[in-house]
Specification:
Largest sheet: 5 strands, antiparallel
Distance between the termini: 29 Å
Strand content: 5-15%
Strand order of the largest sheet: 1-2-3-5-4
Order of helices and strands: HHHHHHHHHHHHHHHHHHEHHEEHEEH
Oligomer: single chain
Helix content: over 70%
Shape: elongated
Structural class: alpha+beta
Radius of gyration: 26 Å
Number of domains: 2
Number of helices: 22
Length: 582
């Protein structure tokens, strides 16, 4: 019996494209503004929007810090069947956003003038930069709040709502840009207000979606426990550090390009940067689609599932990134016209396309280490990926007179090499104590290597279910279970899978894990479909077809059920009294 990738493949792909679209909605506003501003105001307006980007990234730093950190904690809690902690994390994160958002809005409005002067170097762009920055500051609170429902709608399996919110944001921003800039002749004011209003309305829709239908997560005021705040910051630090280092990188590169060539050079960089921000929907969306499942599987110690998820991310991520790069390069002439730049974009787009491929791989591993309690390693790789190698490589290429845009692919390749070195150092250090530590993903494979667990997948059909029940005997024998314990596991497989298949028709694959630990033996079942808890409805327990479930409940030490990410997770555990029998 082996675990295949059918179940996780379906679940991952169900999440992938809505999450890519949700990340796209967060980045495309700047691209839309760039296009409209460049057409309406020319290269100076385009340069001003790009110069203001660090402000937006700093705001995103705190929004992603709170949302990503809380979602990792909630996902890990669901892996341990602790829904109370999962819900509390959501509510603490909401309160943190409200408080910090209000404080940052007030501070941003007061400090807008000196910040604008710093970003524009008090040059010809200052007036445009001040206007765009001021309106961006007004929208700090909805921008920060918008991150939280995007993460938690995914955890609730409400992928349609994520897609709708993305379409809503892009459509509203495009329409408002046109109306405010061209009909009401508001110029850069119109572009900034369009982004603000589209974000606000989408944010309201997302929270309404969280509150309607079946949901584990509802807004409720709670006290801000210091222990929760610390953990949210720790787990969210890689996401926040990524946005912060992006802001610092843009600040340095903008200053460098502005000093070397003025507004025209910055305008070319603005195009490349805007398109790279568009690619973030892939490089961030691919790992984000898997992150909650990775966190839940990690706390459940299901390493086979983690490896499948990593392979799925690399396979589909590289495929999508390659297609995106080919399309981008092929459209170099239309892009030159849309952005109104005089420089040729073909070679810069080739460099950008190669960069995206390697950057995706780095992003997948950074997200993996973030959600598997390797936060420090994740943060180190973030600094390499987002700041050290891009800025350092750009400076070296310019210093030695090389082709400027080569800094993109060279920096991304160096990031992967540095990441491999760091991972090898961690493995060498920890493997002295944890002799079952895997080299690439740094997972503890003790349970698998000692054959304390067996992971397998089955098609939920009666004959196959019966065969699985018979094949589990070998696993029970290897772990020296007596006949009574073996019978319990067989009964659990037969009764639970039969009733699940009957209540949730159309499932192609179900993932199972049988475990034999020192104090408990048992079974964990993961299946898709609508929410169904076989232990929940006590009225059904008296029915003849539910008699087996009733027997299991009486025999078990503990039963639990969670429904997250659109996945039913059923756990049943029995006492392991083998040593007592001996």
């Amino acid at each position: 019996m082996n675990r295949d990738n059918k179940f996780l493949k379906v679940q991952y792909l169900k999440n992938l494209f809505p999450i890519i679209f949700s990340v796209l909605g967060g980045t495309i506003n700047a691209l839309i503004d760039s296009v409209f501003v460049s057409l309406f105001l020319g290269e100076e307006g385009l340069a001003a929007v790009n110069v203001c980007m660090p402000i937006y990234l700093v705001i995103c730093t705190f929004g992603s810090l709170i949302a990503a950190g809380a979602s990792v904690m909630s996902s890990q809690a669901t892996g341990k069947d602790d829904m109370k902690r999962a819900v509390w994390c959501y509510r603490v994160a909401f309160m943190m956003n409200i408080i910090l958002g209000a404080v940052f809005t007030a501070a941003g409005i007061l400090l807008c003038d000196p910040i604008s002067g710093l970003l524009s170097q008090n040059g010809s762009l200052k007036d445009y930069v001040y206007i765009y920055s001021f309106i961006t500051m007004i929208g700090i609170l909805p921008t920060m709040l918008s991150y939280l429902p995007m993460y938690y709608l995914q955890m609730e399996g409400k992928m349609k709502h994520i897609t709708v919110s993305m379409i809503m944001m892009i459509t509203l921003d495009t329409m408002l840009d046109w109306v405010l800039m061209y009909i009401f002749d508001m110029g850069i004011y119109g572009a900034a207000f369009a982004s603000l209003f589209s974000c606000l309305i989408t944010c309201i829709y997302s929270y309404i979606s969280m509150e309607t239908g079946y949901s584990n997560y509802h807004i409720k005021p709670v006290s801000l426990k210091l222990s929760y705040i610390k953990e949210i910051i720790r787990y969210g630090s890689p996401s926040a550090l990524g946005n912060f280092t992006d802001a610092a990188k843009l600040l340095l590169l903008n200053a460098l390009f502005l000093k070397l060539g003025g507004a025209s050079v910055v305008a070319v960089w603005a195009v490349i940067n805007s398109l790279s921000e568009l690619a973030v929907s892939i490089t961030s969306g691919v790992p984000q689609a898997a992150a909650p499942m990775v966190a839940a599987y990690y706390t459940a110690r299901e390493n086979s599932g983690l490896r499948i998820l990593m392979k799925l991310q690399i396979k589909y991520g590289l495929t999508i990134a390659a297609i995106f790069g080919i399309i981008l390069t092929a459209m170099h002439l239309p892009l030159e016209m849309v952005f109104s730049v005089s420089e040729r974009l073909f070679l810069p787009l080739v460099c950008l396309s190669v960069y995206i491929l390697f950057d995706l791989i780095s992003s997948v591993f950074i997200s993996f280490f973030q959600t598997t309690d390797r936060v420090l390693l994740s943060n180190i790789l973030v600094v390499f990926r987002r700041f050290l190698f891009p800025v350092g490589t750009a400076a070296l290429v310019l210093f030695f007179g090389g082709y400027t845009w080569l800094f993109l692919p060279i920096g991304s390749i160096l990031t992967i090499l540095a990441g491999m070195i760091c991972t090898a150092i961690v493995w060498r250090s920890e493997s002295k104590v944890k002799r079952y530590l895997s080299k690439l993903l740094l997972l503890d494979d003790y349970l698998e290597r000692e054959k304390k667990v067996i992971d397998f997948s089955i098609v939920p059909e009666n004959e196959i279910i019966c065969n699985a029940s018979e094949q589990i005997i070998d696993f029970c024998s290897e772990n020296k279970m007596n006949s009574r314990q073996t019978m319990k596991l067989q009964l659990a497989i037969e009764e639970l899978l039969t009733i699940i298949a009957r209540k949730n028709t159309g499932m192609e694959s179900i993932d199972l894990r049988a475990f034999a630990l020192d104090d408990v033996i048992g079974l964990r079942i993961r299946c898709a479909g609508h929410r169904y808890n076989p232990f929940e409805n006590q009225a059904d327990i008296d029915d003849d077809e539910m008699l087996g479930i009733a027997i299991l409940i009486r025999l078990s030490k503990n039963v639990s059920f969670t429904y997250s990410l659109g996945i039913n997770v059923i756990n049943i555990a029995f006492e392991n009294n083998t040593n007592v029998n001996k």
